[in-house]
Design a protein that fits this description.
Blueprint (H helix, E strand, L loop, with lengths): L1 E3 L4 E6 L13 E9 L4 E8 L5 E9 L4 E7 L10 E5 L3
Antiparallel strand pairs: 1-2, 2-3, 3-4, 4-5, 5-6, 6-7
Length: about 90
């Protein structure tokens, strides 16, 4: 779950299962920054507060800001893999 502040900062909690293994924490706290361009593309940087790792994302905001599609992009801190996600706004 991600909360955007409208000023380029975000907070998030993640629960990611890797190779069938649950994380040590049920929910991992994340902070980050984001930028959205006029054409609804943009970037996000996520910083893991638990272990100091980071992830960069390319994003597309669709449906008048109600959905966001993301894909992990270089550079990032972690194993080589492709991760994509989809998020829907909850009011």
């Amino acid at each position: 779950m991600t909360q955007f502040d409208g000023k380029g900062n975000l907070t998030q909690v993640d629960h990611i299962i890797v190779n069938g293994q649950a994380p040590a924490e049920d929910w991992t706290p994340i902070i980050g920054t984001y930028h959205v361009n006029a054409n609804c593309t943009g970037t996000i940087r996520l910083d893991n507060l638990s272990d100091g790792s980071f992830v960069n994302l390319q994003i597309v905001v669709v449906r008048q800001g109600k959905e966001i599609h993301t894909v992990v992009t270089a550079p990032f801190d972690g194993p080589a893999r492709t991760v994509a996600s989809f998020g829907r706004r909850v009011d």
